[in-house]
Amino acid sequence: METAVFSDVRSLAPALALVAAAVVSLLLHVFLRRRGPRVAGWTALSGVALALFLLAVGPTAPGALFAGVLRLDPFAVFIQLSVLLATALALLLAFRFFGAEKHEPGEVYPLFLLAAVGMMMAVAAADLVALYVSFELFAVSSYILAGIFKKDRRSSEAGIKYFFLGTLSSGCMLLGMALVFGLSGETSYAGAARALAGADEHIALAAMVLFFAGLFFKAAFIPFHMWAPDIYEGAPTPVAVFLSTASKAAVIGILIRSMTSLFGGFSSHWLAIFQALALATMFWGNIAALLQDNIKRLMAYSSIAHAGYLAIGLAAWSEAARTAILFYLFLYIFMNAAAFAIVLLARSEPGFKENVSDLRGLVRTSPLAAASVLVVLLSLTGIPPTAGFMGKYLLLAAAVEKKLYLLAAAGALNSVISLFYYFRVGRAIFMEEADDASAARPAPWSVQTVMVVAALVLLLFGLWPSALAELAGVSTLGN
Asked: How far apart are CA 309 and CA 203, in angstroms?
């Protein structure tokens, strides 16, 4: 028994490494005074690197952990990898952002790590109690992160809005869990799924809808998207990066595990729900983005639209769709992190400018960053030879395979619509002159690192998509 418990704990080594790094970084922030926050940041980044290493060398399919409460299958490992990469990119951008703002709250770094721990555990959860505890860990940490600049009106407003709306969505999900438990008397996914098959269908469907509503909020699906533009605009840019990448990856992972393992008997119902969500989310996100001048709001609506693309895979659920979702989700981490990082290229005193026009002339001051932005924008649009094209192709192919021709056509049409607002950003960078000499400055090393890494990843898997597709293909869900 002790050996089995030790083996289960060892399988959680990446998450435990993040917890240890969070504790150490918090202590360094408290006791090192002036240099504490930056040292805490590097400690947090080192913790993420260690967690990535432990995840890579750890067991690939240990199966059920702690009597089935957690299931660390290849699917969970893939999502955890995506969460860790998103966290690393957000931390790199945080160095630039907080350095320029002249105020670096050291507690932000352990909060990033604790939120990542919650996400990693939530995607592995195969029990309602474990899921809710993990979900709330990353949710509460995210609320604090959004309002981390307590004296800044926009950041405080973002934190308050996110807290109240997020609490409401968590309450909906908890009510759905309560109905599931009331119908089944079980908290494990497998046990509850067996009991739901013979339960009152109307109550079971109400439980499913309430459960999914809390997750739809975090993923910013229509009509649960209302928080995203305001929160992404008001929150510090690294936090917006983290919320739009790591959080979305985790929520999609939770959705996939719950809809197959917990509500698998109601597939005809949730397939119809995801079809409607995909259509509404894609069109609303892309059309609203056309009207935005603020880069963060533009990218927020773009993020909503990309949630719609991912919903195509959920609506066309199959092995091919699962591979397409994981393929696109991995690329989305890099695309969206680099897209939000564009804001950090327009420096002002203090802080950063956030309008598209503020990027004018960037190609002359930061040619490498500008070239990387071009690759990212092409990938977001879905233009070859970038990996974004292959990601959208796989999602649309999965829809066609299921004879969802209208959904596939809508996805292709929305890619065309997105070209118009991404082109506005590219035009400002490459084709327009800066209003003044200080409008655009050379990009700092941390931002350039994120930009270049993202561009290289998108080109690599655009030219060699089979490598990532094979990894996504073998990242199967455990029974």
From this structure: 30
State the burial class of residue 316 (Cβ atoms within 10 Å of its Cβ: 0-12, 13-18, 19+).
buried
Mean pLDDT of 340-352: 70
How many Cβ atoms from other residues are within 10 Å of residue 367's Cβ?
A: 12
Return d(Cα 180, Cα 29) in angstroms, integer: 43
Q: Where are the alpha helices (DSSP H) in 197-266?
A: 201-219, 228-234, 237-257
Is the pLDDT at 276 greater than 80? The verdict is yes
Phi first, then psi: give them for residue 464, nearest 5 degrees: -135, 65
Q: Which of 334, 340, 364, 344 is nearest to 428 (CA)?
A: 364
Which tokens go with 464?
């060699």
C-beta of residue 24 within 8 angstroms of C-beta of residue 37: no
CA 94 to chain centre: 17
User: Helices 387-401 and 405-430, interaxial angle, to 10°?
Assistant: 170
User: For residue 165, what is the enclosing H or E element?
Assistant: helix 153-184
Find out whether 449 and 96 touch, Cβ atoms under 8 Å.
no
Nearest one of 333, 292, 312 to 422, comparing CA atoms: 292
Query: What pLDDT score was predicted for residue 82?
Result: 93
What's the CA gap between 211 and 219, in Å, rounded? 13
Token pair, residue 342, equals: 């564009």
Encode pLDDT of 299-311 as tens digits: 889 999 999 999 9
Residue with tokens 């503020």: 358
Among 344, 407, 409, 350, residue whose Cα is nearest residue 373: 344
Output the six-digit token pair for 375: 């690759």
Which residues have C-beta within 8 Å of that of residue 51, sequence separation ≥ 6? 14, 15, 17, 18, 21, 84
Q: Could you tell me where the beta strands, DSSP code E, fall in 8-113? A: 63-65, 70-72
Residue in the structure block whose two tokens are 């006791």: 31
For residue 66, what is the DSSP state? T
Contact 246, 116 (CB under 8 A): yes
Inform me whether the pLDDT recorded for 99 exceeds 90: no
Q: Tokens for 164, please give them.
A: 């109240």
Q: Tokens 């119902």 correspond to what residue?
A: 269
Q: How far apart, in Å, are the Cα atoms of 243 and each of 45, 90, 91, 115, 266?
A: 17, 9, 12, 10, 30
In which element (H, E) is residue 465 found? helix 465-473
Residue 163: which H helix or E strand, with range?
A: helix 153-184
Please answer whether residues 242 and 112 qualify as being in contact, where contact means their C-beta atoms are separated by less than 8 angstroms: yes
C-alpha atoms less than 13 angstroms from C-alpha of 274 in its C-beta half-sphere: 27
DSSP 323-392: HHHHHHHHHHHHHHHHHHHGGGGSB-SSSB--BGGGGTTHHHH-HHHHHHHHHHHHHHHT-TTSHHHHHH
CA angle at 213 for the pair 209 and 215, rounded to the nearest 5°: 125
